[in-house]
Structures are given as C-alpha cells and as structure tokens.
Model the fold of this input.
Amino acid sequence: VFILDRLEPQDLYRGQILQGDQQNVLEVLLSFLKRDYRNYYYVSPVACPTRWIHTIDDLVPLPKVPEVMSCRPRVLSEIGYLQPHVVVACGQSAVKCALPKKTPQVLMSAGSMFPMSVPGHHVPYQVPVMVTNSLHTLGRLPEAEQAELWHETCQHLYSAISVAEQLHALQGESYGRSDP
Done:
C-alpha cells in the first residue's frame, strides 16, 4: 500500500488517486525493480481536495494537518481491510497520516521504517511504514538533482518490497501454507 501526498484536485474529484506525474514516477521506479505499479494499492491522505487557486507555477499544496487527521480513520480502515505487510508513505502529508503522534521529517527519516498501529478485524496490529520522498517532488526536480534522489527512493522501495516479501513468507510458514 502506498500513501501519496500531493494529489491534483481534479483527480480527487474523479476518484483517481494515481495519475499524471506521480503515476509516471512510480511506474519508472517500480520498473527498475521489475515490478508493475498496477499490482499495488494507492490511498490519499485526504478524500477531498485542498483549497487551491490554480496558477501555472503553483505546486499542488500539501493538505493541512486537520484535513489529514479528519481523513485518517478512512485511511486506517482501508489499510486494515487490505492487511498489507508494509505501507510506503510518500512525502510529508503521507507520513503525517501514517504516523501522527511523532511525525518524522521526510528529509531526516527517508529510508527508515516505523511501526503504525492499524485496526484489525479483531484487534489492532502493527504494520511497518517506510518513509520515503514525495513522488510529486521527484517528478518536478531539475535533471541535475534527479539521479541521487531517484536512486535513493528506488532503494527505499526495494527495502520495503523485500520486507513485505519476507513477512509474507513468514506468514505462510506460520499458517502452514506457501500461497498468499
């Protein structure tokens, strides 16, 4: 499961979470890892668009903390329903949504994993959250700055996928099965 941070208002209105630059960036990053972006689930930290007066040079604004916190129960419900082995939080508002009490800064914590409490079917459980860079930012970087940050983000995704695969294998062993 990926939590994305900056979504275009028109995409939110249409219910299209992964579109445009973020889709292109994620498609390229995952293709480096021999993965298909269509095999993952994407969630927005907010369900309604942040107020935004569009001009040509505007960045899509980060959602405000109250907006993220008001939508957090929906995000937790989706994650609880899906029961992923790992959640990848892409950007600061995604990290605020996943880890609201002690929100780490993305620049300082990118590549680190933190536990997130998710309501399960019967009891809450912990899911590791990989903190990584905003896909929106990766798509807007000048070419001179892209290589290092793209490489770093690709390593974060590789680590998250590796942890998810290891946890999946352990879960299969504990239930006496090998299939998901």
